[in-house]
Amino acid sequence: MCGIAGVSGKDAEARVQKIITALSHRGPDGEGTWSSNPSFALGHRRLAINDLSALGNQPMVSEDKTVVISVNGEIYNYPELRTQLESLGARFQSTSDSEVVIHAWNYWKEDSFQKFNGMFAIALYDRVTDQLFLARDRLGIKPIYFFFNGQELVFASEIKGILAGINNSRPGIDPVGLNQYLTYQNYFGNRTLREDIKLLEPGCYLLHKLGEGIQLKAFWNLTFQSEDPKIDFSSAVEKYRQTVSDSVARHLMSDVPVASYLSAGFDSATIANRAAHLGLPPVCYTGSFTEGGWYDETSVAKKMALHNGSDHVSVSIDHNNLTNVLDDLVIALDEPRMGMGAFPQYCVAQRVAQSHKVILTGHGGDELFSGYPVFKLVQMKQDMFRASLNFLRQLKTLKLSELPHLAYFFASDFRSRPYRQYLPVLNGSLALQQGLTAYWSDAIRDLRADDELINLDRSCEKQSEILYNHYLKAYLNGLLIVEDKLSMAHSLESRTPMLDNEMLNLSLSIPQNIKMHNGVLKAIIKEGGRPWLAPSLYQQPKRGFPTPLRFWLRGPLREWFQSRLCGPESGLGIIFQQKWLETVCDRYLNSSKKFIRPLDEIQSQKMWQLLNLESWLRNAF
Predict the structure, then answer these.
(1) Residue ranges per domain, the chain?
(2) Higher pLDDT among residues 519 and 437, named by residue
(3) d(Cα 200, Cα 144) in Å, to the nearest integer?
């Protein structure tokens, strides 16, 4: 894991040096630049994990000097690719997995990208054709941003690097990006909150002929396979067990110790268990809150660690941590994005980085194997008319904790835009218009926050396909960017075995009704884990890294919260009317919904959204 950078424009090398200085947290083990002329340069910050010697330093140049790379991430099928390439005549100089990118390019060119099983953001300069290629892995585990004004191209692993590379000028707020964030707490497609700064989309590459324009192309697309009638639940579970075990084995590739996150959920528990049985049991880390109860996953996680033979570290988090780290967290993110789970993620990553460089996570299990209640709703809607017995069976499996989510998305069916039902909406357009200043009200009044979602839907034939498109290509992308930024803020590489190429292929080959076997969310992962996981895990409700923000904002952080939203130094006055902010704050603090946890969590997400946006606005310009 590293930071990459490049400039195609005047004073390129000096500007690349500024970028990699801004990205120093992503690679404290080394830095390097490469330039062919005053108008083009590549840069790299290194977090040394595989091949710790100088042979793994980047930018890396091919033996014949024709290919130069700067790579962030890991190529997990590196051993197989290396063997294949050596049989074709390639000669490797190191044991770094990044070197396989050079040799793959020499033999396969752009087809290389779809051969890589890993997480990667690749910058590759072909000196023969004078072309630069930027490529991002299939699901977008590793981000890469770019700025192109028709003359110059600047790219980096983070937006703060772009800003340094354009001499600290500050592009304004993108109205569509703002509308998307206020509506969905996320951004879609190549959108960011900054005008003119774009995110390379997952499974795509950018082609730039030096001194000319750019082209964006896809090397991989989400393709839904025909349902195989031969696949039943038992065979799907067996395939899952083998595939997840193989994936974790690949993700243990490292010349430094590997740790694991561990919550009271099935995804992280499965990854930690497989890692323990495939190698040295990893140290496991869990965030814990003093509030206990619903917010305490420590006791279950500790039992799982003991079950696996792993050491367990509980990271204590309280309200003081929030006031201490919020601004640093938002700076790490580059822009506000996603929910309040980012806060404990940041705190736990900070602790892990004191002793480790690599951590395994459970990201992706919900999205690949139907872990959210909305998946159950879609399956029930399909079965209601074509398989009544399945529908009745699923009605019997409904859990009390699922009902608020199902009711919300069911009500969304009555809206004029049915695809909105699949992603939660924090603020409707009418509510936003009431609170925005006149300038921003006019700026976003005629904009639609869901245009990119509409584009995702065009190739889908079924409601279930739309659902997976939204969660794999829109929602998951946001989660992965947050994970990358928060871990790398502490020079920590996070790895996601659930999102291995083979895991993705397996998911796309299994019909939705089998993933939802007997109406059980994430049925394959749960059944697949029975030989491995502690029985107590199966008695736990789905939590999703809960955070007791609602108690803090009405308790010890009440004054701090009011000051941040409504005080004279609040950055929100740039976008919102002061009276509206005061009303929102007062209604939240005195809301009767505070006695109903699911409803109060939704309110608290809105407050988290405003707190993050306020922090960003303080430092953005």
Answers:
(1) 2-218, 233-369+473-539
(2) 437
(3) 6
